[in-house]
């Protein structure tokens, strides 16, 4: 679902406009370029990567199934990254399961031009995630992030697979009722239904433990809630010394 008005409004204001969860589209890429932005597409397969390049994208992001949040493809990161790097001649970023300096060093050594990281930053000081969600990320290990299609209520991308914390999934399954809580949205209060696809924001009240908590296997690298700059420094300097 593309918000074309929104796209035209940010084209040029953002250095890069990244698309996801739709087939690569020449018109959308052209709209990003018309404003002066670079265009990227997050992909889950080699064919999708080639289609993104054919549509005019300046870079692609190869997302492996280890990722947190919505998962596009069926292949884990290293096999996908290898194939995408061989198939396209634009810069390729790696996404999914990168939560440590070792993992960042690994994808850079494999030839990736950079990495996209989600789960580590969901637990950053600046993240808008609910404190209980952040605490669950700190407690979790790699095996506590599972692929599910359960959090599909009130979710425009759904039904679709997503990497989520097992604890949230279990709590939602065990919850008796349709409404798990409320959130503040643009000055109004909205109900959060059980299995809603929106991850628990800081403004949520109610049964936070049963709300969606996206996370990938990279959650193993989350040991504390820290400022984003410190996380970047840890990963980059660690990868450099490795
Ligand atoms: C909490 C959370 C929310 C996400 N939301 C989006 C999103 O709105 N759009 C998007 O393209 N990807 C989203 N992603 C997926 C990321 O783009 C990326 O593929 C993923 O985080 C990489 O795996 P990692 O979580 O192991 O770092 C989200 C990921 C997480 C963890």
Brief summary:
The chain is of the alpha/beta class. It contains nine helices and eleven strands.
Descriptive report:
This protein has helices spanning 4-10, 26-35, 46-54, 77-87, 101-110, 119-122, 131-139, 166-174, 228-241, and strands spanning 16-19, 38-43, 59-63, 69-70, 92-95, 114-116, 145-148, 162-165, 179-185, 188-193, 205-206. Helix content is 34%, strand content 19%. A five-stranded parallel beta sheet has the order 1-2-3-5-6. Strands 4-8-7 form a three-stranded antiparallel beta sheet. With 242 residues, it is α/β, with parallel strands linked by helices. The longest helix has 14 residues, at 228-241. Helix 1 packs parallel to helix 2 (26-35). The mean pLDDT is 96. The N and C termini lie far apart (41 Å). Flavin mononucleotide is lined by residues 20, 42, 63, 66-69, 95-98, 116-119, 122, 199, 214, 216, 218.
């Amino acid at each position: 679902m593309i918000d074309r008005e929104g796209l035209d409004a940010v084209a040029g204001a953002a250095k890069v406009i990244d698309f996801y969860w739709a087939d690569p589209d020449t018109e959308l890429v052209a709209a990003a370029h018309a404003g002066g932005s670079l265009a990227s597409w997050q992909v889950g397969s080699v064919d999708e990567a080639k289609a993104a390049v054919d549509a005019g994208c300046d870079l692609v992001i190869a997302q492996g199934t280890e990722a947190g949040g919505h998962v596009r493809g069926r292949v884990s990161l290293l096999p996908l990254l290898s194939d995408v790097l061989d198939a396209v001649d634009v810069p390729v970023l790696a996404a999914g399961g990168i939560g440590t300096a070792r993992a960042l060093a690994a994808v850079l050594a494999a030839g990736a031009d950079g990495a996209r990281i989600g789960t580590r930053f969901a637990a950053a000081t600046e993240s808008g995630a609910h404190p209980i969600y952040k605490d669950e990320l700190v407690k979790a290990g790699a095996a506590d992030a599972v692929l599910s299609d359960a959090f599909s209520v009130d979710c425009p991308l759904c039904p679709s697979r997503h990497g989520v914390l097992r604890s949230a999934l279990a709590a939602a399954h065990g919850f008796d009722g349709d409404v798990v809580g409320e959130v503040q949205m643009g000055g109004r209060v909205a109900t959060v239904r059980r299995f809603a696809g929106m991850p628990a924001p800081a403004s949520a009240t109610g049964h936070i433990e049963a709300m969606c908590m996206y996370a990938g296997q990279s959650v193993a690298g989350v040991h504390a809630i820290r400022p984003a700059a410190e996380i970047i420094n840890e990963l980059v300097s660690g990868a450099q010394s490795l």
